[in-house]
Amino acid sequence: ARARVLEEKGETEKAQADYKRAVELSPDLARLIKRDVNRQVDQAKDAAKVEKEANLATQPKTADEYWDRGNLFLRKKDFAAAIADFSKAIEINPRHSGAYNNRGSAYLSKKELGKAIADYGKVIEIDPLEEGGYNNRANARQQFGDLDGAIADFSKAIELTPHMAHLYGGRGIALLLAGKDVEAQRDFERCLKLNPSVNEWLESSIECARKQRAARP
Questions:
Q1: Model pLDDT, residue 30
Q2: SS3 of 94, please?
Q3: Local structure of 121: helix, strand or coil
Q4: How many whole angstroms separate alpha carbon 33 and alpha carbon 45?
Q5: 147 close to 115: Cβ distance less than 8 angstroms
Q6: What is the per-residue DSSP string for 156-203?
Q7: 3-state secondary structure of 124
């Protein structure tokens, strides 16, 4: 009981200490606390779901509001609705780079690669010093089969942010697909030097790229 009072007063550390002591003294109490915590988590999830649905039902007015709702649709994988909202945001504000970027992501998810590449190109046009547009367009170009374009975009992203490991990994994959194994290996080594924790992702990506290259006629 004292722990609950402390918690309501905002004295979290003292409350946690009381809960811990109570649990040590009574395993049954531990089960009750766990049940109470699970109930609170479920209530929070329900509240978040209600709020999310309310946001989806709200009619946006500004470019940012359309962008926000478009992001909700994007997370729900309702790509058509997301594209419609991002397009409306762009109609209101033709220089809304976030709307172009996320509409590009929606097109990419629908495998409409040409449209995705065009939208990422607009992101670069609006903000040419932001690496994200180049990285995203590189990935889309790679899927499209434009390996030279992908390598060029990855290289520009690396020029802007040379400390980002995933950019070297991405360019390395494009180089590997292009048959430039020595250059690819240098990028893989640089990627792992910057961030050794991506080793599993990198190995999986390399394996997929080699299978893809081997399957070519």
A1: 53
A2: coil
A3: helix
A4: 18
A5: no
A6: HHHHH-TT-HHHHHHHHHHHHHTT-HHHHHHHHHHHHHH-GGGHHHHH
A7: helix
Determine the residue type at 69: R
How far are the Cα atoms of 80, 135, 170, 196 from residue 174, in angstroms, in the given order? 29, 12, 6, 20
The greatest distance separating any two alpha carbons of the chain, rounded to the nearest whole angstrom, comes to 73
Per the model's pLDDT, the better-predicted residue between 44 and 169 turns out to be 169
- Going by C-alpha positions, the residue among 131, 132, 76, 84 that lies closest to residue 107 is 84
| Contact by Cβ (8 Å): 61, 91 | no
Please report where in the chains the tokens 């989806």 appear, as a residue: 56
Sign of the Cα pseudo-torsion (67, 71, 74, 76, in order): negative
* Angle in degrees, 0-180, between the axes of helices 113-126 and 97-109, rounded to the nearest 10: 160
Q: What one-letter code names the amino acid at 194?
A: L
Question: Is residue 150 within 8 Å of 134, Cβ to Cβ?
Answer: no
Which pTM was predicted?
0.74
In contact, 58 and 69? CB cutoff 8 Å? yes
Tokens of 107: 């097109």
pLDDT in tens, 37-80: 556 555 555 554 545 554 556 788 999 999 999 999 999 999 99
Three-state SS at 10: coil
Average pLDDT, rounded, for the chain: 85
Contacts 24+ apart (CB under 8 A), 18-24: none
